[in-house]
Amino acid sequence: MRTLIINDLHLGVNRSGGTTLASLTALRKYGHAKHRELLALAEDGDTVIFNGDLSDVYDIPLGQAIEIYAVVGDFLSAQKNSRVVWAVGNHDLSKDSSKLGTVAFLGALLQAQFPGRFQLLDKAGLLGTDIYIIPHVANQEMFDMELTRIPTGVRFVLLHCNYDNEFAGAMDHSLNLSRKQAKALKERGIVMIFGHEHQQRDLMGGAVAIVGNQFPSSVSDCLNNDTKRCAVIEDGNLEFIQTWSREDTVGYFKEVDWRDVAGFIHEPSGFIRVVGNAKGEEAAEMIKAISTLRSKSEAFVITNAVQVEQAEGLGDIAASVEDVRSVNVIDLLLELLTPEQARVVKQLTGREVEPLAVEAEEQEELETV
Q1: pTM over 0.70
Q2: Which of the listed residues 127, 311, 313, 351 has the most CB atoms within 10 Å of its CB?
Q3: How far is 127 from 208, CA to CA, in rounded Å?
């Protein structure tokens, strides 16, 4: 019997950038189709583990929830000897622990329908004799404590966290396994299998296996890897099965120069990153070309990564977006107004106002500013 490990499907995905209502609907259907394909990789008698982030947010739309329930229900009904385990990830849970998420709700239904063959794992637990799973927990301190509780004799540990990212542990709803912690687990003969990160990596001689997600749901998921994979444990060994390629007919990934986008209007559903350089006077033409592509293409997601030449003099206004965000508009406005006008603006914005003698007729004029 084998154990198939899947993670970060982000079903019911919600993307506001680079999509239209129609392309978002198609992207969601693509996710459910890929979910069904992944389950089809399992043979009767296999165990399938979802290592976190089955859903994109904890409360995905009900229509998306029904699709998930139907796919898993069909799989367990067809394969009478197989098991499914859902370990929750950070996207599956609300930051408010009093709110029940979609994954927890569907998990309760599936556990009742398939007792002993479906398991929702929201706490660390042992699967068989050699696989230990630590789902997402509320904070880094709790996660560090869970690492100390890993039983002796475990061969594989499944985690849903970042690896060697010192900033992740301080972020809200994110966890990190440090290099030091990984080294200690490796010395115990443990292989760590990661969910959460979407780009695959293998480190520490294979002791750290960051599987990556099995198919993209955004353009950023397509970067840096030409293929994607899922993990399989069989006879005490960890192996991988390819689940996506940037050359796939549906779900492909292409980078296209903005001057050539017209040739991609009739491409099938996939992920397109528009690239290239544009002079300042070409900016309007470039934006129109990408807008036309988005309105007519069947691509799931189209993002704009074109570098626009900076117009002369703009660099003196703001060196970056952060500089713009730091500008206090009220202060700039006050510098342009007369003392009388500035006094009215300060009153409207709740700022301290210096005493000022104003004639009655002047007061009426100021109140119209």
Answers
A1: yes
A2: 127
A3: 19
* Contact of 238 with 193, CB cutoff 8 Å: yes
**Helices H / strands E in the chain, number of each:** 12, 19
**pLDDT by residue for the chain (369 residues), tens digit each?**
799 999 999 999 998 889 999 999 999 999 999 999 999 999 999 999 999 999 999 999 999 999 999 999 999 999 999 999 999 999 999 988 899 999 999 999 999 999 999 999 999 999 999 999 999 999 999 999 999 999 999 999 999 999 999 877 556 578 999 999 999 999 999 999 999 999 999 999 999 999 999 999 999 999 999 999 999 999 999 999 999 999 999 999 999 999 999 999 988 899 999 999 999 899 999 999 999 999 999 999 999 999 998 755 544 444 444 444 455 666 666 666 777 777 766 666 666 655 544 444 444 443 443
Residue ranges per structural domain of the chain:
3-245, 252-308, 328-366
Give Cα 250 to chain centroid, integer Å.
20
- CATH 3.60.21.10 describes domain 3-245: yes
Residues 328 and 312: their CA atoms lie apart, in Å, by 24
311, two tokens: 């117009």
